[in-house]
Specification:
about 270 residues; alpha/beta; Rossmann fold; 2 domains; 5-stranded parallel beta sheet; two-stranded antiparallel ribbon; about 55% helix; elongated
Length: about 270
């Protein structure tokens, strides 16, 4: 191949890469139920500002018909807002990205309700002074981390859609699924308390709580992979991801890794 033709091909390749439109992913942390500071109308207005081609919801496929419409809108902010948006902009597409069979999986493995039973037992031991000083500090820190999140969740949505709030969420979930295990893995109370799973098998609070932590990682990583799969199948589109704001830090962290060296931009909904 002579040099002028080679240079021309290189130039065409460079220009085509430059003109290829980037895929945009906008992860919006939400409150699932209507509140005065965040309801379906507020979320609908955000969607109108963003003008997405796709809206991805924290639901699995069982919540959708075969043509990806909601089977039941209910009182979910996300479902009400996205349904209204689709009615106004019918070319927009809805898609689920949740871990399939999430609730059944947790119940069948025994991670639920042992997760809640375990934290209640930790609190009861703490309240009567049976935890060591180190253990009590862990439990107290875990509970204290929820307080600023409650305050932030009562404000306008940009207050729980930013890196500072993401960091608090990350620390709170780290304490829940990693630090509390320093208590449950050590104390006999959690090895000797059992829950009976639907199949009749017993599982200790200790083992159930460990499974709950493992599933927190599995679920969020699976959701991020599902988001990436949809994004890569729809290059150049603007994709809004709706998630409970406690998941936002984990999903964004995974997406930053998965989108590396790809023509995908992660944006906030309030960025131009």
């Amino acid at each position: 191949m002579n040099k002028p033709i080679l240079l021309l091909l290189i130039l065409i390749t460079i220009l085509s890469c430059k003109t290829e439109k980037s895929t945009e992913i906008i992860v919006i942390g939400t409150l699932h139920k209507p509140e005065s500071n965040f309801n379906s109308e507020i979320l609908f207005n955000i969607l109108e500002d963003v003008q997405p081609h796709f809206i991805l919801e924290e639901l699995d496929s069982s919540f959708f018909t075969s043509n990806f419409r909601h089977k039941n809108v209910s009182d979910s902010n996300e479902r009400m807002a996205s349904e209204k948006y689709i009615e106004k902009y019918p070319t927009t597409k809805l898609r689920p990205y949740e871990f399939e069979g999430r609730n059944e999986y947790r119940i069948n493995t025994g991670s639920r309700p042992t997760d809640g039973l375990t934290t209640k037992l930790i609190d009861s031991l703490n309240n009567v002074g049976l935890l060591s000083n180190t253990e009590a500090k862990i439990d107290n820190k875990y509970k204290a981390l929820l307080e600023p999140l409650i305050i932030l969740a009562s404000k306008s949505p940009e207050n729980f859609n930013n890196s500072t709030t993401d960091s608090i969420c990350a620390e709170r979930q780290y304490y829940q699924y990693k630090m509390l295990r320093k208590i449950t893995d050590k104390r006999d109370e959690f090895e000797n308390q059992y829950y009976t799973k639907p199949n009749g098998e017993k599982i200790s609070y200790r083992d159930g709580f460990k499974l709950a932590g493992d599933f927190w990682d599995l679920r969020n990583k699976t959701m991020a992979k599902n988001i990436m799969r949809i994004s890569e199948q729809n290059k150049g589109k603007r994709i809004v991801v709706l998630c409970g704001f406690m998941h936002r830090y984990y999903i964004l962290s995974e997406l930053k890794k998965l989108t590396k060296n790809k023509n995908i931009i992660l944006k906030e909904y309030y960025e131009n």
